[in-house]
């Protein structure tokens, strides 16, 4: 098997495994009782929709796992399909983690004596997730071989870094405007400025490397990854302090046990997917070993058992209509706010354009009079 193809599969396995582990730690192993804004969809208006969505996502995971296992028998020729399958499997599993985390919260707060979570100035998961995306993209830039940094990969990594820095800075800018303490507000502003400046230097270096690939420009990219990592890590740490992220739901012991049952079943599915990634990576370097192929089938069996437990747990408990409605209201408020912001941006843009045109006309008249 081509060494470049082996490296591509191994690197995809490692990235998928690391990302799944980090997100599982954020949402499953932490057992935090919070709703997820990423699940505040207007489509999620009933408990049955959530159940159906989780079941459909698990089925997709099973289908993707079986497709990867089928391709493994032709690993030397199907390396590209395996890489794409692993990436899709990873993103689908992350979707399941988010759904189960949100559903576990809705199930838990339906128990008598529980109190709903309170929102803070900062959406904790969004900031942590964007921080993780920036870290993974920067590390990939630092560790990639020069011959592996294709123009398309550079564009993808640069876009990912820009997008997630925008997410973090937008959230933190709004938080800085909302806090009452002046020094805290200044801290948010300085942190945002630090991240945007560091990111600007990195993106300029990436563009230089893309235009003129050389070891000098490649070294420059590696050098400017460090300040972006440092500044974004500091901002994420500061923004996710308890003072800014609101309060978790107050749960009774019975509610907490039920929440853990949902999260635990989901974690079993995630563990099986992570094990599949590890096994495919091992298989790349030792194709002849039958033990690796047997492990792959054990992974699918584990997902089937865990999905059955998850289904049973959700069938036994109801979802809080009150919390679900509150999520929908917050989603509507967020959409309304975004529409207002877009309208204001459009107004300011039109005003700027008008003043620019007026300025040009005045300048033209002045030149004509001369």
From TrEMBL:
Alphabetical list of Pfam families matching this protein: Talin_IBS2B
Biased composition (Basic and acidic residues): 333-348
InterPro entries the record matches: Talin_IBS2B, TLNRD1
Chain residue ranges for the region called Disordered: 333-370
Residue intervals of the Talin IBS2B domain: 133-240
Molecular function per GO: actin binding
Biased composition (Low complexity): 349-370
Protein name: Mesoderm development candidate 1
